[in-house]
Amino acid sequence: MYLIREVVIELWLPISRWYRYILVFGGTAVPFGHSSSDELNVLSLRTLRWNIIKCGGTKPPKQYGHAMLRHRDVLYVVGGTTGFAYNMDVFALPLRKAPLAWHKLESSEAGNGRYRHEIAVYKNQLYVFGGGQAETVFRLDELPVYDLQQHRWLLVATSPDLTYGYPFPRRCHGFALHNNFAYVCGGIDNVQVLNDIWQFQSGFLIIFGGVTDLEGRQRTNRVVGLWLTPSPLRLYCCHKMVEYFPGLRYLPAPLLMELKLPKFFTDWLLGDYGGEYAVTRLLSN
């Protein structure tokens, strides 16, 4: 195994998974914003080797704190900061078209630029959750939404939880998707470190690491898990299979097919299993 030097030094690295690859774009080292990257780094989960992928087109700027996801074999990067300026630009990288080339998507006025936000795709629209600037955090009672077909921004109002109302504004939060649900976990709001989980109208939520104090001095490497719904039996069986036969996760697709395992299991191993605006609070301080 070898490591690319640029990956080792970068501290803020938005990450996405595409089949058996981990995609890392951009990021920064300390001091933040003074050594940012605009490279696309790819880790093969089969060989555990990193590679820098050369891409043409209109690349996102050298930045960090942006949100990133892969949807239908297209990698999207939204927002971020150079350390001095914030944006809400949307960039797309089709992963199956050669040569690889970035595209900056046209849009109407996107409103406030931000960083350390999260995004999700629902019905061909990109939903932006939270985020902020150096002294600002953005609310969750209205979500900026980018329409991938009409190439325009709009605001979508959310409905409050009947008991707790709306989530506090926040940035640096954890985020997970399951089916048509989005989950926002913790974060900071410039006053306090938040310790709550909200569901945006299932699955197992995993949170690794994070910052446990407002000043950003205390960090943790703990892994915390929570079942959001009862575990489906076939998914439980998948976890047990790799627990007893860990080598299965490293087999190439042709060998997995020769084993004649259930399709759901092979899809799950290969990372090909994925699957209205009500807000529900699940866990609080």
TrEMBL record:
* Superkingdom: Eukaryota
Q: Which UniProt keywords apply?
A: Kelch repeat, Repeat
Q: Which residues cross the membrane?
A: none
Q: Which Gene3D superfamilies match?
A: Kelch-type beta propeller
Q: Which InterPro entries match?
A: Kelch-typ_b-propeller, KLHDC10
Alphabetical GO biological process terms: positive regulation of stress-activated MAPK cascade
Can you say what this protein is called? Kelch domain-containing protein 10
